[in-house]
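Our consortium's second objective concerns turning raw sequence data into structural hypotheses that experimental partners can test. To show how far this objective has progressed, the report includes one record in full. It was chosen at random from the queue rather than selected for favorable results. The single chain below, 301 residues long, was entered without modification.
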Amino acid sequence: MGPTAAGKTDAAIALAEHLPVDLISVDSAMVYRGMDIGTGKPDTKTLAKAPHALISIREPWETYSAADFAKEAAELLERSWNNARVPLLVGGTSLYFRALLKGFAPLPQSAPEIRLQLDEEIAREGIVAMHQRLTRCDPATAARLHPNDTQRIQRAMEVILVTGRPMSELLRAEHQGVVAEALSVVVSPAERAVLHERIGLRFDGMLEAGLVDEVRRLMTHPKIQRSLPALRSVGYRQTWDYLAGDITLELLPEKGKAATRQLARRQLTWLRSESDAVWLDPTESDFSSRLANLVKEHLKL
């Protein structure tokens, strides 16, 4: 696990070269086809050498939930174990990790009348105001959501209005997850400035690799709209803003990097709550050997 741009994928691929592991992506953006550059997907050559499950399995306009992930990932875990191999989960989507390893609390079905009420409130006061309201009612959930994430903010408020309890409290309830003794490793630079530098270099690299053209192609598809969850991913949202004329090309890198740093901050907030996780700094000279030794010790190799 780890924040965006920390080096999780490289670390996992290095392990796959020496250990009998099956790589399983835990990334809510990499599941979408045609969204390759902005999600930081491993390229074709890398995937041929180190295949990752649950990459490019949905179209951008199709829904994919944490529950979908948990179901499919659990099947992949079972397949790995049956083949005497080790499943290696790699990614930064905390809700997916939680859904798979700890299960789900029973959340209420959508309530159309409350959803309409929230739609009207958003239209009247804006999504930032609703995010502020959520912060007062459920600070833990609000902290992991971007202030412009309309769909998830609205859903979190809906849960509060339907149940009278914050979503974060419901998600902490006892529930069924995968029964497995997992080794959790957080890959993250110890210095925040180093992570921010990596984020900046990575976003610049995405722009050089053709992120603008990738989003431009996506915009031409009749089923793809700006409001889709897939297109609200960090990097895609800002690039769409540029192509729509809402920001200048000069502002695009600044906006994209700032949004990515905010994402990393939310990811780190969640990662610090994982009390059993081992933290490793990928910039340390002995990082690779320490990671390999941790895994070998866990597997009793």
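The partners drew two points from this record. The mean pLDDT is 93. Residues 186 and 279 are 5 Å apart (CA to CA). Both points have been shared with the crystallography group to help prioritize constructs.
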